Amino acid sequence: MINFMGLFHTFVLVCQFIILQPFVSASGNAADLFEKASQSIKGGHYTEALNDLNSAIEADPNLSKAYHYRATVLRQLCRYEQSERSYKKFLELKPGHSAAEKELSQLLQAQSALETAQSLYESGNFTKSLEYIEKVVLVFSPACTKAKLLKARLLIADKDYDGAIAESGFLLKEDENNLEALLLRGRGYYYLADHDVATRHYQKGLRLDPEHSELKKAYFGLKNLLKKSKSAEDNASKGKLRVAVEEFKSALAVDPDHRAHNVNLHLGLCKVLVRLGRGKDALNSCSEALHINEELIDALVQRGEAKLLTEDWEGAVEDLKSAAQKSPQDMNIREALMRAEKALKISKRKDYYKILGISKHASAADIKRAYKKLALQWHPDKNVDNREEAEAKFREIAAAYEVLSDEDKRTRYDRGEDLEESGMGGGGGGGFNPFGGGGQQFHFTFDGGFPGGGFPGGGGGYEFHF
């Protein structure tokens, strides 16, 4: 006889097993997924960790620690809204959990700081924006890609190009195809004038996304700059100086912020302007180059040459002396310095041509004629009311005539020799004094001169001999 009661109990046990088995399996699976996620978090593999945590929660919606871990990972990644929801769900399951409540508060601080940093960046307050990123956002959300990209942009804006290269390099280790990181790293190298490396970063980004607007602008902007720069340099080397001037200016207008490259453009422009004799313009260009790099010896030399063109003798000596100190073995600089020192010395002596009011190409007859006119005008006997001034002026005129009327002295004077030091100059220690005082008495007689050999009312005047 069949034992119906035994069969019934067996049937009930089987049904219970069938009904409870998925729950037991799900619970075990959730625990395994959670453990796997924990290991991924330790290795910094946050995407994998999130996938496993989501699966664990799906398998066991009451697995509170999975919500806590997911909230923490999302906060690290600065996915703040999602993180906040996970924290709140965890706190529903574990109300009053102090650590989670503190982390939620930190999340809100980090979220606010990131928004503030972005706003400050857009308004141009780069220093303050960087403080928010480094001291708040990346402290609470160290895996925040958005914050790291903003930091790289801020470093470039602050001209910390090495820092920007390092920061964007960390991002590319995490994701080698991060387009914005490629752009920013390329810009860092660009502003350091490492144009080949910059080009490679731009090209890689454009292979991934040929229509990326910022990468296209950066890449073609760099090509344009290099093209204009090379054209300017080529025309300068070929002697097409006026064309080169315009091309240097055009290249400088491409990116006024590219100091590492523009310093060479300013210097190139200065050299061309010096060759054209445009001293004032050359002075400005070389000063721009030295403003970027005050140790640029070639710019100091060229500015010295520009100052010679503008007759700033002392400034020329100062620049060339500084260049000679920085490069004492350079004979070209020493020769330029000697020219400047000679020009300075000449500038301090009296200009005899100017005193007689004649050009440097005046003939002997022109010199004699000018001297006769001025000697009559400034003779002390004709300037009783201002006798002292007249005597001083008369001495200058006589000294100028003494040198310029003598062919040998005039030649040496025109060469820049110091005639006073050699005892041959007029008006110096070895010269003459038309009024005595230890010097030679100076007599003039004009053809058809004045009665008595003097001037009317002169009181025994002077004779002039030509």
Automatic annotation (TrEMBL):
Name of the protein described by the UniProt record: J domain-containing protein
Domain called J: residue spans: 351-417
Species lineage: Eukaryota, Viridiplantae, Streptophyta, Embryophyta, Tracheophyta
TPR repeat extents: 64-97, 179-212
CDD domains xrefs: DnaJ (cd06257)
Chief location of this protein within or outside the cell: endoplasmic reticulum
An example Gene Ontology CC term for this record: endoplasmic reticulum lumen
A Pfam family assignment: TPR_16
Record key words, sorted: Endoplasmic reticulum, Repeat, Signal, TPR repeat
Signal peptide, first to last residue: 1-26
PANTHER family linked: DNAJ HOMOLOG SUBFAMILY C MEMBER 7 (PTHR45188:SF2), DNAJ PROTEIN P58IPK HOMOLOG (PTHR45188)
Subcellular location: Endoplasmic reticulum lumen
SMART domains (alphabetical): DnaJ, TPR
